[in-house]
Backbone:
């Protein structure tokens, strides 16, 4: 009897596997028509309030290469003046509109940029974004 066991070749019975496959195929065929077949996009309605200009909402602090600072189009000769301009611009704004961008020339020393970032943080701007000089 031991000789018969050594000569026996293993055979995989695939009939139960095919049955399982067919059952899964039927289940997927029944479920697939119930899936949403398209994406429904919701378009926001037009605001009834007067529109605010995007340039009034965005704040950009510029460090001039010759010295001095600028908040959008308002010049500031030194850091305390810039701090006062930032406080006036940020006070009364909601928290989600306190983002301020910093634009500086590439040749400027890192320490000068850090001083301006500290002034921006103390004025309450969050988040602070850095703007690349060549982008408009």
Residues:
């Amino acid at each position: 009897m031991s000789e018969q066991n050594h000569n026996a070749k293993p055979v995989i019975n695939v009939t139960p596997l095919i049955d399982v496959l067919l059952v899964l195929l039927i289940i997927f065929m029944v479920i697939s028509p119930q899936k949403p077949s398209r994406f429904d996009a919701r378009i926001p309605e037009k605001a009834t309030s007067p529109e605010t200009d995007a340039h009034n909402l965005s704040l950009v602090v510029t460090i001039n290469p010759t010295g001095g600072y600028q908040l959008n189009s308002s010049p500031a000769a030194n850091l305390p003046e810039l701090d006062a301009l930032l406080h006036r611009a940020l006070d009364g704004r909601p928290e989600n509109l306190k983002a301020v961008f910093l634009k500086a020339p590439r040749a400027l020393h890192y320490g000068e940029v850090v001083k301006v970032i500290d002034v921006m943080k103390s004025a309450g701007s969050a988040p602070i974004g850095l703007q690349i000089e060549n982008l408009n």
Q: What stands out?
A: The chain has a mean pLDDT of 81. The first helix runs from residue 2 to 7.
